[in-house]
Amino acid sequence: MAISYNLVNDEIQCKPKEHVVNLEDNKGILDVQNLSAWYGNTLAIKHISMSIKSQAITAIIGPSGCGKSTFIRCLNRMHEVSHGGRVEGCVLLDGKDMYAGEVDPVVIRRRIGMVFQKPTPFPTMSVFDNVVAGLRLTRFWSRRWELEEVVERSLRRAALWDEVKDKINQSGASLSGGQQQRLCIARAIAVEPEIILLDEPCSALDPTATLKIEDLMRNLAQEYTIVIVTHNMQQAARVSDMAAFFLMDSDRAGMLIEYGKTSQISTNPADKRTEDYITGRFG
Amino acid sequence: MTTVDHGYQRRKWANRIMLGLTGTAAGLAVLALALILGYTVVHGIAYMNLSFLTNAARPVGETGGGMRNEIFGTLLLVALGSILALPVGLMVGIFLSEFASPRTATAVRFAADILAGVPSIVVGVFAYAIVVRPLHSYSAFSAGVALAIIMVPIVARTAEEALRLVPNSMREAALALGITRWRAVLGVVMPGALTGVVTGIMLAIARIVGETAPLIFTAFGSYFGVKGVFEPIGALPLQIFQYALSPYKDLQQQAWAGAFLLIVMVLGISLGVRWLSQRRRM
Fold first, then answer.
1. Where are the domains of chain B?
2. Ramachandran class of A26: left when φ > 0, alpha when ψ lies in -120 to 50, beta otherwise
3. Least packed by Cβ within 10 Å: which of A13, A98, B114, B167?
4. Which residues pair with A93 in a beta bridge?
5. Does A199 have pLDDT greater than 60?
6. Alpha-carbon gap, residue B225 to B231, rounded angstroms
7. What is the pLDDT of residues A222-262, one digit of tens each?
8. What ipTM did this prediction achieve?
9. How far apart are the C-alpha atoms of A168 and A224, rounded to whole Å?
10. How far is B182 from chain A (nearest CA, A)?
11. Residue spans of beta strands (DSSP E) within B51-161
């Protein structure tokens, strides 16, 4: 039986959903149950429960500061890397709680990849080394021809191959912003995750690069489960299948207000606060 | 002007005097360096010749004596000290920057800073007590231990500072790929900090090249050249010390030449450090 990560609050029990696991596909199925996260003593998000749809794009929307990034970082155990990061509740990956004591966060992060807001190619490595960094540093073999296959495959999937195939040995930092972000996506894909989390991937990019990445995401969604944080309602409408609206409560902790199909939420939201946000009354 | 502002004139003069004083102080510092370098160069370069670099010591009265064995000795001691100090110093630096909790880090940093301030002669006596006495002999190894103790805090602190300069986003990007902490540090963070780390290593080497006091108790000096790691060994600073105190003009000239060579080595390393840190500007 999976038990709560934080032993202080014994009432929170996770309900492992054995019956939903589709073992043949092994596509990561994420289930969030009563998730709360702290930075030290400050509560950042509280009592979030939702089920992330597999092989679809889920957008986390909401005004800034309402805990969207904190939430997404909890999904691949990156929140605990932050100073004072602490989590309560469960996140079930394929029916098993990833915050259980015996689970190795490194294994979770290999199955759930993450792309950050600011493109971070490793500056001391070439484009080639960047893409295979995740492979080289997690295993000990590195036969060049096998890696070359992986590099081409990942760069093609990230829609970057044609642009960089001639400069594959140049430094990763020599690319433009949009190319760097696609390089980070290629790097994340190279380790073959099941789920890809994107934390505002386009906010540091120009509109052309943004459109390219949005196209890329729609292609990736055929194979991977994608969760994207965005503060841009229109981007969420363009790209995502499901949308989750977060809002800061009076105690300055983020809460999940509404979760459903993007088409539904953007045209006919159930909650008034969602409607206010979508129509631009605040946010 | 009907009202004269005495305060303003006074402040202007005070300003000029302070500027003058700070400029003079800077000039004095540069002058001191210029005098040391100039004096050593002038005296040393006259006696520096090929035989000095390639010949072993010769008896007094014989011409053409040199410090070849002592030069090898210094190089061997630097190598020994580095082999012992670099792994420890780098790991301490990595620990302080990546893995330590703030309280532990403060304590370790404090200890390292105090160790850096321990007089080198005390380090030499300590190395005598823990290596020379048990081994019943002076040795290059004991000198290596003493020099390593001096090197470790320098390497650790500069490595820590260099690692801290690597942005956190780099670490998070590495961790998000499912890389374990240790491999993320070695494979991603350390290469990013390489320039700073190498600078720290070179600074530590420049420091120990000229250390004499610890060598008196550990290496001891040798008339017989470089015999082995566990035998006494001569080194450049030791030989300069001995020759400078001797009453023979010939040996004193060799001491000047040795001092000149020492300055050239340290200056060379320091200039190399500057060149390196300006070259890798990312």
1. 6-47, 54-279
2. left
3. B114
4. A30, A96
5. yes
6. 10
7. 889 999 999 888 899 999 999 999 999 888 899 999 999 99
8. 0.86
9. 25
10. 10
11. none
| Residue A195 Cα, gap to closest chain B Cα (Å) | 12
**Per the domain annotation, does A6 fall within a domain?**
no
Do A134 and B177 meet the contact criterion of CB atoms below 8 Å apart?
yes
Is pLDDT at A1 greater than 80 in this prediction? no
Q: Residue A10 above 60 pLDDT?
A: no
- Is B178–A106 a contact, with Cβ atoms under 8 angstroms apart? yes
Count of domains for chain A: 1
Q: Is residue A97 part of a domain?
A: yes
Subunit contact B177:A81, Cβ cutoff 8 A: no
pTM for the predicted model, two decimal places:
0.82
Where residue A3 falls among pLDDT bands split at 50, 70, 90?
Answer: very low
What CATH number should be reported for the domain whose range is B54-279? 1.10.3720.10
Domain containing residue A120: 18-278
Domain contains A79? yes
Task: Please give the pLDDT value at position A4.
Answer: 34
Q: What is the mean pLDDT of residues A71-96?
A: 90
Q: Are strands A57-61 and A242-248 parallel, antiparallel or unpaired?
A: parallel
Q: Alpha carbon of B67 to those of B72, B152, B238: distances in Å?
A: 9, 29, 11
Provide the mean pLDDT of chain A: 86
Query: Which of A116, A123, A209 minimizes the C-alpha distance to A172?
Result: A123
What are the b/e assignments for B3-29, b being 16+ CB within 10 Å? eeeeeeeeeeeeeeeeeeeeeeeeeee
Choose among A104, A94, A44, A119: nearest CA to A74. A44
Which residue among B169, B178, B194 places its CB closest to the CB of A134?
Answer: B178
Size of interface A-B (CB pairs under 8 A): 72
Q: Is A175 domain-assigned? A: yes
Low-confidence stretches of chain B (pLDDT < 70) are 1-4, 280-282
Tell whether A7 lies on the interface with B, counting CB pairs under 8 A: no
CB contact under 8 A, B174 and A133: yes
Token code pair at residue A29: 């199925």
Count of Cβ atoms closer than 10 Å to residue B43 Cβ: 17
Residue numbers in A near B176 (CB within 8 A): 76, 78, 109, 113-114, 116, 188
pLDDT for the residue A23:
44
Residue A37 contacts by C-beta under 8 Å, 6 or more apart in sequence? A43, A44, A45, A67, A70, A71, A74, A79, A85, A86, A87, A88
> For residue B197, which residues of chain A lie inside 8 Å, CB to CB?
none
pLDDT recorded at residue B58: 84
The confidence score (pLDDT) of residue B56 equals 85
* CATH value at residue A163: 3.40.50.300
**What is the per-residue pLDDT for A11?**
46
